[in-house]
Each structure stands twice: as C-alpha cells, then as structure tokens.
C-alpha cells in the first residue's frame, strides 16, 4: 500500500438531516488533518453516508457503496459506511455490498477520524493550518444551510424505525443554536432551514416545555438571515402560537412542511400517528387562515389500505390543496411494526395509487402556479444564469431541493441575492419571471 495522503471523499445520501450529520463528520475529519477531495477515485478513504428510508433509497445506497468498493481494485483505499442503513440494514449491506472496510454507527460518529486514521494505517501528521482551525464544512451552496435543532424522535409511527436507530428526541439548547445561526449568517447564509425528526416538540426534553416559538423568535434577530424556514412539523403539535409566528412576516417564512402521511382515520390508526382526519382539518384551517403555504408527505398503499380509504385520502387532498406534496409507495421497513401487519398490498397497487394521487396533486400545484402569474414575488437566487440558461431561484413558498423554482432571464443576478420578480408565466410546477428589482438588504 502506498503511503496514505489522508484524503477523504464524502458521499452524502438522503434527507437534509443526514446532510447535517455529513457536514459534522466532514468537519471532524478536516479538523483532525484529513483533506477533503470531491473525486472518490483520488481519495484514500471514501465515506458513504447512507439513507435507509425507502426501498429506493436503500437500493441507491447499495449502488453507491458498490461503486466505491469497486474503486479499491484500482488503487489502495478504504470504504467507510455510515448512516441509517448501518443501524437497521447491516446484514443487507454485508450481503449485497461486500468489501466495506468499516461500518460507522451513529454512536461512533465522534470517532470518525480515529476510524479513518486506522484504515489509512496512521493519523495525519500533526499540523496547525487555517483549514483545521476553521473546520466547518458546508455541503450546501453558500447561501443556505440546514440547522438541525434536535435529534431522534419520541413518536412510534408503525412504518418507521428512526426512533430505534436514532433514539429519543434530544434538543440542542437555544443559545447553542442561535450561536450556530450567527456563525452561518456570518459565513454568508441567507436562508436557514430548521430541521429535525419532529421540529414541533423542540425543547420539551431539556426545558420541560415547548420552546420552538421562542427559538424562532431568537433566530429572527440574527443579523444577516433573510429567510428562516421550518420543516418537519408533526400535525398534532401545530398550535396557534406557532401559526402566529410563521405568519408574522419578516424573515420567518409563511411556509410549513408538515408530513401527514395519510388522512383516513383507520389507516392513521394503523400507522399509530395519534391523530385523525378532524385534527388534520383543524390544522389546515389554522394555517390556511393565516396564509401559510403548506408542504406535506403521504404514503400510498399502506398495509390494509382499502380502495375506499385511498379515495378518502384523495378527497382530503382535494379539499386541503397542499401547495407542495411528496408521495411514496409504502415500503416495508425491516423491524417496524407495520412490517408485521396483515394486508400488505401488491407493488402494482401501491404504484397505481401513487400515480393517481400525483396526477391529482399536479392539477392542484399547476393551478397554484398559474395563480402566481402577474404577481410580484420575492425570490432567492440559487443558480446564476450560465451559458444562455436563465438564472434560477425560489419563492418564499419553496424549500431548497424539494419544491418548485422561478426562472429569470437576467445575467446579472448572483446566487444568494434576493430580488422581487414579476411572474410572467407558469410552466407546470415552475414559474418564469422578469425585471428583477433588488430587494432591500435585510
Ligand atoms: S415522526 Fe414518525 S415517521 Fe417521523 S421520525 Fe418519528 S417515528 Fe419516524
């Protein structure tokens, strides 16, 4: 084996919560002297942070690990695997993607640099560089960042094993989060996206009461943050005080991602979600009444879901008119309560229901997009115009990566800039706008 240069390539899969873990892992590696490369083929150590949420995510993770292991045939290097699959799909990983050098469970994240040094044969030389001093690696574009406000989950949804592998909910103290937000803002972050497994019970573990509203109020005062977005709310925890703060304007966005998973009482009971359709209707009314844009997630083909249950869900979605929606066919989660339920449906039924649901949602989203034509909307630029392609940004109602975009034919706009755009046309989910007027700097 040639002498290790202590270089690491990192591949992060899955949701923003996993991305925040990846940022912390990479930062630890850099602070301990490893250099990060973008090309796995050049690195001594390749780290794959897996996602095990759905069958498709597991298949993607396995494919990426196999590719990484294949690189070992060309030159000396090691493959480390972290993330949700290590906790719940270790056997599958060993069987379907052999050749991994080390698995790094959540409990060992603090030791990632020791593990990397071990597989390299030695630790990076002791040195003191500016990079090491400032090790705080972002895996998002410079103008937005995810802030994980708590880890773990206290719910017992029957289709999910996150509480088993990530443990009970642990909140970070408000002061630490505000300090982190200040650091991110000073680094140029304009949009801060708050994430957690369930963001709406923030603080109950360490303060004995819900402090989410207080946290948002404190973050609102952080200089430089123009947009603050809340993701992953739990329906029963969406209270009037939260709706008020989201609707209050300024840097807190009138947007909420609140995964409902289903709306039929019987299916919700099987899912162990702890609420029913009436609760969802009340929640939607509360938020809608304050002009808050809603994103949700639903599952089609849950075990035992009848045709009538599914029709019930469609009717709920017709009435609630979520602006944004992600849907997944039910995916068996090894070790979950739902896996042991009776009435698992054929894949074809799950997919057919998914397609029907997405067609319905498409009509709602397209109509919503057409309603924006002629309006002036605030847009945060994600990608500047390049090679004749328009600049691309997002409105206050659109989260990074998952929601719609606005295209603007303007070559002067920079990533991270916030401008007021007149919407000229709707093209499916997306919008086209023009003649940006610079927004007041916040
Ligand atoms: S709220 Fe339910 S689905 Fe979400 S992480 Fe917790 S147990 Fe899993």
Which second-level CATH architecture of the largest domain applies? Alpha-Beta Horseshoe
Q: Any idea of the CATH topology of the largest domain?
A: pyruvate-formate lyase- activating enzyme
SSE class: alpha/beta
- % residues in beta strands: 15-25%
Strand order of the largest sheet: 6-9-10-11-12-13
Structure, briefly:
The protein has 442 residues and is α/β, with parallel strands linked by helices.
Describe it.
There is one protein chain. The chain has 442 residues and is of the alpha/beta class. Helices cover 35% and strands 22% of the residues. It is built from 15 helices and 18 strands. The chain has helices spanning 16-31, 55-71, 84-88, 90-96, 112-120, 130-133, 162-166, 174-186, 204-207, 212-220, 240-247, 265-271, 277-288, 307-320, 347-371; strands at 7-12, 35-37, 45-50, 78-83, 102-104, 144-148, 150-151, 170-171, 191-195, 227-230, 252-257, 293-300, 324-329, 376-383, 391-395, 406-408, 418-427, 430-438. The strands form four sheets. A six-stranded parallel sheet has the order 6-9-10-11-12-13. Strands 2-1-3-4-5 form a five-stranded parallel sheet, with helices on both faces. A five-stranded mixed β-barrel has the order 14-15-16-18-17. A hairpin with a 7-residue loop joins β14 and β15 (391-395). The chain is globular. It starts with 6 loop residues before the first strand and ends with a strand. The site of iron/sulfur cluster has 9 residues, from α7.
């Amino acid at each position: 084996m040639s002498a290790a240069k202590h270089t690491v390539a990192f591949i992060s899969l899955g949701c923003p919560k996993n991305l925040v873990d990846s940022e912390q892992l990479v930062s630890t590696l850099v602070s301990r002297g490893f250099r990060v490369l973008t090309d796995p083929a050049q690195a001594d150590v390749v780290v794959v942070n897996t996602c095990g949420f759905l069958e498709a995510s597991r298949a993607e993770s396995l494919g990426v690990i196999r590719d990484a292991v294949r690189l070992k045939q060309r030159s000396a290097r090691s493959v480390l695997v972290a993330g949700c699959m290590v906790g719940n799909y270790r056997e599958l990983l060993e069987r379907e993607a052999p050749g991994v050098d080390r698995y790094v469970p959540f409990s060992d994240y603090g030791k990632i640099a020791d593990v990397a040094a071990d597989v390299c044969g030695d630790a990076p030389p002791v040195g003191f560089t500016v990079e090491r001093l400032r090790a705080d690696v972002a895996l998002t574009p410079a103008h937005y960042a995810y802030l994980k406000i708590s880890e773990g989950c206290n719910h017992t949804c029957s289709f999910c094993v996150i509480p088993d592998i990530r443990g009970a909910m642990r909140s970070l103290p408000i002061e630490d989060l505000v300090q982190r937000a200040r650091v991110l803002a000073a680094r140029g972050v304009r949009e801060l996206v708050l994430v957690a497994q369930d963001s709406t019970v923030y603080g109950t573990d360490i303060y004995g009461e819900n402090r989410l509203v207080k946290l948002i109020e404190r973050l609102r005062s952080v200089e430089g943050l123009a947009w603050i977005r809340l993701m992953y709310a739990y329906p029963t925890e969406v209270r009037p005080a939260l709706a008020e703060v989201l609707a209050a304007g300024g840097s807190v966005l009138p947007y909420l991602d609140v995964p409902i998973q289903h709306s039929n009482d019987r299916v919700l009971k099987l899912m162990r979600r702890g609420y029913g359709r009436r609760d969802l209707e009340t929640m939607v009314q509360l938020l809608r009444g304050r002009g808050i844009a809603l994103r949700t997630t639903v599952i089609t083909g849950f075990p035992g879901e009848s045709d009538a249950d599914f029709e019930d869900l469609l009717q709920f979605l017709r009435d609630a008119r979520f602006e944004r929606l992600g849907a997944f066919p039910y995916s068996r989660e090894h070790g979950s309560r739902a896996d042991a339920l009776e009435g698992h449906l054929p894949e074809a039924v799950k997919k057919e229901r998914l397609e029907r649901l997405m067609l319905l949602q498409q009509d709602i989203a397209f109509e919503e997009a057409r309603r924006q034509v002629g309006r002036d909307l605030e847009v945060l630029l994600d990608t500047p115009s390049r090679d004749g392609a328009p600049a691309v940004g997002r409105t206050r109602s659109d989260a990074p990566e998952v929601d719609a975009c606005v295209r603007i034919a303007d070559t002067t706009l920079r990533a991270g800039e916030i401008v007021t755009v007149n919407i000229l046309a709707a093209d499916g989910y997306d919008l086209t706008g023009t003649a940006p007027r610079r927004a007041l700097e916040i």
